[in-house]
Write a structure and sequence with these properties.
Number of helices: 1
Helix content: 10-25%
Distance between the termini: 136 Å
Radius of gyration: 36 Å
Shape: elongated
Strand content: 35-45%
Oligomer: single chain
Order of helices and strands: HEEEEEEEEEEEEEEEE
Number of domains: 2
């Protein structure tokens, strides 16, 4: 039995079918590659997003019934609290956010007026004042500036009246004890100017000698 040779049209049709099949396979392979890339990208995004979300500190309100205090520590469900404790004080229109670690203040505590103006930043480390403590009046004017190192005063402490004029000044020795103290009235008049030495205070406000703050009469220096 003889087999007839394929006709040209049949050859073209077979070639066309073969080419179409090849294109479909190539498209399918390309689609799989892009699907894999998209899955990898989504997986990476999810990992980063979840990691960032997990690093967000836990925030709890001060009046949350799960919060309690014991021995100077803040507890959450009976365990030392790590996170941010929020507190609202309507009487003075303030909101506070304080960071805690293992039940103790740790990090920067901030306070805002209800207007949004920041009125205080205070740094802590393991429950101790450690770093800069600053306060402002509700209009943003400086109110006070103090630096601590493990609850010890460092160098100087400054305070201002609402009009921006100096209100108080303290200088500390290496142990954090006050060795100089000055206070001014809002009009700029100084009314306290003391030097503290060996448990006694010696004052010279203006041209007048103040009485000593100890039981003995004041002395001039």
């Amino acid at each position: 039995m003889e087999l007839s040779a394929p006709q040209p049209t049949e050859v073209k049709r077979a070639a066309s079918l073969t080419a179409a099949s090849g294109r479909r396979q190539a498209q399918s392979a390309l689609l799989r590659i892009w699907s894999l890339r998209i899955c990898i990208a989504l997986l990476c995004f999810g990992t980063v997003f979840c990691g960032a979300w997990s690093r967000q500190p836990l925030e709890v309100g001060n009046m949350d019934p799960r919060i309690s205090r014991d021995g100077g520590k803040v507890l959450l469900l009976g365990q030392p609290f790590t996170g941010v404790l929020r507190q609202s004080i309507p009487a003075v229109a303030e909101k506070h956010r304080t960071s805690y670690k293992d039940g103790l203040r740790d990090g920067v505590a901030v306070a805002y007026h209800d207007s949004g103006q920041m009125i205080a930043t205070r740094a802590y480390l393991a429950g101790e004042k450690h770093g800069v403590h600053r306060t402002w009046y509700n209009d943003g004017t400086n109110k006070s500036y103090t630096v601590f190192e493990h609850d010890r005063y460092v160098n100087e402490s400054l305070g201002w009246h609402p009009n921006g004029r100096p209100a108080k000044y303290k200088k500390f020795d290496a142990a954090g004890e006050t060795i100089v103290m000055k206070r001014w009235r809002a009009n700029g008049l100084i009314y306290t100017n003391l030097v503290l030495k060996d448990g006694e205070a010696f004052g010279m406000p203006g041209s007048k000698v103040c009485n000593s703050t100890s039981e003995s009469p004041g002395k001039s220096i």
